[in-house]
Amino acid sequence: MAPENNQPEAIIFKKNEVSPNFQVGTPIFFELTQKSRRLRAQATLIGWSRPHILITSLPMESRLLIIPTGTELIVRYLLEGAVYGFITRLIHKQQEPFGMWILEYPEVVEIKNLRRSPRIPLYLKVGTGTGDEWEMLDLSNFGALLVSNDEQFIGDDVELSFTLPDGNQVDNLKTKVVRVNYSKEESLVGVQFDEDDLVNLGKIKKYIESCLRRQVVSQNLK
Question: In angstroms, how far is CA 78 from the centroid of its own chain?
């Protein structure tokens, strides 16, 4: 069993359980809480053997590389317009001849359908108008989910600035806090974008559409 401080916190998904659905090459996102610190990292799904194991590349975060086998992790991934999530356990780590993790295969996963407003898992550093630094967890055309180390309140106005992975800079985007969940160390903050900021929203829409197009192309090549 993993140490108590390695146990993941609750997955932020609606209770809609489905059978697992995977595709090789899908980006996946790990999350766990260790010594009161939340760690997150991205990896790639390499393969699976139903119903026994999942195989992924090594996470792109050095602090996760040293966690022991037996550690429980939250896994999230985007597929066909929905975000899937489940809790799994690391059962083997391999460095040679190539690095990979082997995880327990989930019996069911939880799904959040995003077809109306696609939400992309995206880990970015985000600056606020007050000079604080937050961390983005996901992004949609209309809002985002972020982590703040300070207490936040529903109704607060927050200006956000960040650089999208395609290089476009979002500057001083006006947002309003519409949801807050608290943990011991941080606040999970849902914000809604100001719909009048057409320039910044156009950059976000362009990036999300490019992500969805790449996903469709990848699926068609399978």
Answer: 9
pLDDT digits (tens, 9 = 90+) for 80-111: 666 788 899 999 999 888 899 999 998 778 87
Residue 168 DSSP code: P
The CB-based long-range contact list for 202-207 (8 Å cut-off, 24+ gap) reads 203/164, 203/168, 203/169, 203/170, 204/139, 204/141, 204/164, 204/170, 205/141, 206/166, 206/168, 207/120, 207/139, 207/164, 207/165, 207/166, 207/168
State pLDDT tens for residues 106-141.
877 887 654 456 778 889 999 999 999 999 999 988
pTM: 0.49
Amino acid occupying residue 26: T
Which residue, 78, 113, 148, sits at the end of a domain?
113
Same domain, 109 and 27: yes
CATH classification of the domain holding 101: 2.30.110.10
Rounded distance between C-alpha atoms, residue 91 and residue 102, angstroms: 6
Low-confidence ranges of the chain (pLDDT < 70): 1-19, 80-82, 112-117, 183-184, 215-222
Asked whether 138 and 191 are in contact (CB, 8 A), the reply is no
Alpha-carbon radius of gyration of the chain: 18
